[in-house]
């Protein structure tokens, strides 16, 4: 999985989120993909850029990555 793949997933999660749940979906992306991002030393900024969403959401992805140490996503 590369930066472009992650960007597409993030963009899809954001764009398909119900109204008012977009930021939660960005956090969820960070939680779900934190291991891949860390393992490959990917830049969060590059992933957000590849997603096509606003670059200001870089902070929100980073929050999700930090949360991944404490939470597990539900299906």
TrEMBL record:
Residue span(s) of domain HTH-like: 3-73
Pfam families, per database record: HTH_73
- InterPro entries from the xrefs? HTH_73 (IPR056975)
> Protein name, please?
HTH-like domain-containing protein
Q: What organism, scientifically named, is this protein from? A: Paenibacillus rhizolycopersici
Lineage from the top down? Bacteria, Bacillati, Bacillota, Bacilli, Bacillales
């Amino acid at each position: 999985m590369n930066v472009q793949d992650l960007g597409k997933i993030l963009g899809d999660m954001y764009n398909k989120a119900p109204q008012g749940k977009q930021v939660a979906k960005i956090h969820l992306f960070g939680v779900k993909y934190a291991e891949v991002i860390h393992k490959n030393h990917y830049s969060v900024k590059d992933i957000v850029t590849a997603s096509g969403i606003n670059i200001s959401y870089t902070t929100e992805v980073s929050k999700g990555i930090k949360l991944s140490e404490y939470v597990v996503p539900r299906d």
